[in-house]
């Protein structure tokens, strides 16, 4: 069975990592949409690096939960062909044992040179003046897809959805595009859709089946 799973911040919530839109969705009184942008980085690179340095430390201190582990089991099941796509930038899927994770919004453990495009493993704490290992220019940014930037792997994701037997979204509010449009894309290709979430998402009507509850209960039950 070909399955495409899309995860969002809700799958890491029970590992202690904050989601974007639960609670007040603010960080140092900034809306995430105002920090996770190229304009914010141009205006105040130190603020943006502070945001991601904090989240990198939080992610390294967190542990995968039962939902991450259940998806890793699903990926190892030879009866299924799983494409795991995440909007998350933490590495909890990988640390749970998922072999191939498509990080469509980038990853905290990556650094990117804003001048030459070189990528390298991110240190725990980064600052814009860190020289690029390739061009030596002080233009270091997190390797994160910000608002207004093109997400990664879109062609591969859409092709996998079109050919899938099931599309399942877990722990995402369905408010950020193009990820929020994947369920409608599945429906347009007559692919069954399933949503596992704690609350109603913005694109809940796009799903043919929905289960409500915490991911650490729903995902192991669904995978079993
Ligand atoms: C782009 C950076 C184009 C990483 C993020 C239509 C089409 C295309 C684009 C747009 C469009 N309309 C608007 C846009 C622009 C924009 C957008 O969508 N804006 C929104 C706000 C309206 N999209 C973009 O800019 C994208 N780029 O389209 O480029 C382009 C074209 C040509 C050339 C160049 C570019 C880029 C989007 C990526 C932005 N980066 N973050 C980071 O800092 O982490 S988005 C950010 O939101 C995170 O990546 C996060 O993953 C993502 C989505 O949030 P969720 O994961 O859903 O988290 P949220 O807190 O919202 O919800 C949590 C859910 O979990 C809730 O439902 C809750 O109930 C549930 N939950 C909580 N606890 C649990 C739980 N569920 C289960 N168990 C629990 N215990």
Describe the model.
It is a single chain. The protein has 224 residues and is of the alpha/beta class. It contains 8 helices and 11 strands. It has helices spanning 32-35, 38-43, 45-61, 66-76, 92-96, 154-162, 182-188, 215-223, and strands at 2-7, 26-27, 30-31, 81-86, 101-103, 106-113, 119-121, 140-144, 166-170, 193-197, 209-212. The strands form 3 sheets. A 6-stranded parallel β-sheet has the order 5-4-1-9-10-11, with helices on both faces. Strands 7-6-8 form a 3-stranded antiparallel β-sheet. The longest helix is centred in the N-terminal third of the chain and has 17 residues, at 45-61. The radius of gyration is 17 Å and the shape is globular. Ligand BV8 binds at residues 8-10, 13-14, 19-22, 33, 36, 87-89, 105, 144-151, 171-173, 175-178, 197-199, 201, 214-215.
Features:
globular, 22% strand, 6-stranded parallel sheet, alpha/beta, 3-stranded antiparallel sheet
Outline the secondary-structure elements.
Layout lengths: L1 E6 L18 E2 L2 E2 H4 L2 H6 L1 H17 L4 H11 L4 E6 L5 H5 L4 E3 L2 E8 L5 E3 L18 E5 L9 H9 L3 E5 L11 H7 L4 E5 L11 E4 L2 H9 L1
Parallel strand pairs: 1-4, 1-9, 4-5, 9-10, 10-11
Antiparallel strand pairs: 2-3, 6-7, 6-8
Helix pairs in contact: 4-8
Low-confidence stretches: none
Number of extended strands: 11
Distance between the termini: 15 Å
Overall helicity = 25-40%
Beta-strand percent range: 15-25%
| Major β-sheet strand ordering | 5-4-1-9-10-11
Mean pLDDT: 95
Oligomer: single chain
What is the structural class? alpha/beta
Described by strand count, sense and barrel closure, the largest sheet is: 6 strands, parallel
Count the DSSP helices.
8
Enumerate the distinct ligands. ligand BV8
- Rg to the nearest angstrom? 17 Å
Helix-strand string: EEEHHHHEHEEEEHEHEEH
Shape: globular
């Amino acid at each position: 069975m070909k399955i495409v799973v899309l995860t969002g911040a809700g799958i890491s919530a029970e590992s202690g990592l904050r989601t974007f839109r639960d609670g007040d969705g603010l960080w140092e009184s900034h809306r995430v949409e105002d920090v996770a942008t190229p304009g914010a980085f141009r205006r105040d690179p130190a603020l943006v690096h502070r945001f991601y340095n904090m989240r990198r430390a939080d992610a390294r201190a967190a542990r995968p939960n039962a939902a991450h582990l259940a998806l890793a089991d699903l990926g190892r099941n030879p009866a299924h062909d799983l494409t795991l796509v995440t909007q998350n930038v933490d590495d909890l899927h990988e640390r749970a044992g998922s072999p191939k994770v498509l990080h469509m919004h980038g990853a905290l453990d990556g650094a990117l040179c804003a001048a030459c495009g070189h990528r390298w493993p991110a240190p725990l704490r980064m600052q814009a003046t860190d020289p690029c290992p390739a061009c030596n220019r002080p233009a270091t940014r997190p390797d994160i897809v910000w608002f207004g930037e093109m997400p990664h792997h879109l062609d591969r994701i859409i092709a996998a959805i079109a050919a899938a037997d099931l599309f399942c979204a877990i722990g995402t509010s369905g408010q950020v595009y193009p990820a929020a449009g994947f369920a409608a894309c599945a429906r347009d290709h007559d692919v069954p859709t399933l949503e596992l979430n704690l609350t109603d998402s913005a694109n809940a009507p796009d799903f043919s089946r929905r289960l409500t509850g915490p991911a650490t209960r729903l995902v192991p039950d669904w995978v079993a």
